[in-house]
Design a protein that fits this description.
Length: about 190
Amino acid sequence: MRLAGIVGGAAIVAFAAAYLFASFVLYPPAEAFGLSVEVPDLYDATAAEARELVRGAGLTVGETVEVADPAAKEGRVVAQSPLPGQALRPGGEVRLAISAGPARVRIPNLLGFEEGAAVAVLERAGFHVERSHEIDDEPAGRIARMQPAPGTERELPATVVLVVSSGPPGAVPEDTAAGDAGAAAGEEPR
C-alpha cells in the first residue's frame, strides 16, 4: 500500500512540474513579460475609426467583411474578433465585420404561381406577405399581380402584396358549381 502512495504522489508531482514547464517556459503568457495589448472596443465605430484604434493600440487589422444588418448604420463595426478587453501580443490581428446596412432583395416573379407556393417563396426570402383577391383571367388561386412589381429591389423587412385571382369574369366558384349541378338534378341544396 505504501508503495502505491509513493507512486501516486510521484505522478502528481511529475504532472504539476510538466504543467508549470509548459505554462511558463514553452507557452508563457504575454503579460508575464509585459508584452500584451488590450483589444479596444470597436463596436459602432466607423471602419476608418476602427482601423485607427487598432493601429493606435499596436495591433493590425486582419480580415474585414461586410454583413447585412438592419439595425446598424452602414459602415459601422457590428462584430470584432478578438472581443474588446482581450489581450493580444503586439502586432496581433483584429478581424472586423462592417455593416452593409439592411439586406436588399429583388422581388421574384411569381405571376401565375399557385398562391401557397408564392407565399412560401416570399416568406423564405424574408418578405412579409399580404393578399387580396380579385376577378382576373388567371385561373382561381393563381397570382395575377404583385405590388411592388417583380424585379423591384427592396430593403428587408418589406411587404409584398399578392393579388390572387378569383377566376375569370363569370366563372362560378367550385363549391357553388357543385351545388348548382345538384339542384339541376333535382337534389336539395345542402
